[in-house]
Amino acid sequence: VRADLLDDNRLSLMKKLNFRLLKVGLESGNNETLRRIVKNTTLEQIKNGIKKAKDYGFRVLITSMVGYPWEGEKETLNTYKVLKELMLYRTHFGDSLQSSIVVPYPGTPLYNDSVKNGWFKVDYKNLENFDMSKDLLKSKIDTAKWCKKNWRIHLHPLFLIKSLFSLRSVTDFRIAWRGIISL
What sign for the dihedral angle of Cα 134, 138, 104, 32? Predict the structure, then answer.
């Protein structure tokens, strides 16, 4: 769901319809990047939407990407800080985040800019190259390191404690136990 569409009317309706988990794209913690990828929303709108969804009791999966060619360590750290803020805000058991390497899919503004600016590290005409397992674009950062760092927010003591105290059902405990075993 788009975070900028998460208003009281929609959230109330989704609650009545028994929605439990919302997947929301942050993509980047930087307004300039959101503008360049034509997200058509601002960082403040995204943060407000995610926080409002959490206020309504929804579990939220936040998606983010690292490795934009114009983002360096400073911008990537901004994204990390926003992820951490949102993950620690009214944490519910089941809140999670996904951090992946940028993939500029054909037809998107990022793809067109990448072709135009020579940012591809792979043959952009071969669509088999388009997966999240490797850097497709030139990047100023270590993308694998930042994906892992972002994911480690799940291990932040406050996140773990808040998640533990928000367990509400036997099913929650079973899921938590399976998660602990998988770690």
Answer: positive
Question: Model confidence over 8-54: pLDDT tens digits?
Answer: 999 999 999 999 999 999 999 999 999 999 999 999 999 999 999 99
Contact present, 181 and 174 (Cβ < 8 Å) = no
C-alpha to C-alpha distances, 7 to 22, 56, 143, 147, nearest whole angstrom: 13, 10, 34, 30
Whether 180 shows a pLDDT value over 90: the answer reads no
Kindly state the tokens that stand for 132.
């999240």
3-state secondary structure the chain: CCHHHCCHHHHHHHHHCCCCEEEEEEECCCHHHHHHCCCCCCHHHHHHHHHHHHHCCCEEEEEEEECCCCCCHHHHHHHHHHHHHHHHCCCCCCCEEEEEECCCCCCCHHHHHHHHHCCECCCCCCHHHCCCCCCCECCCCCHHHHHHHHHHHHHCHHHHHHHHHCCCCHHHHHHHHHHHHHC
pTM over 0.85: yes
Q: What are the tens digits of pLDDT across the range 103-127?
A: 999 999 999 999 999 999 999 999 9
Say which residues have a Cβ less than 8 Å from residue 13's Cβ, sequence separation at least 6: none
Would you say residue 178 has pLDDT above 90? no
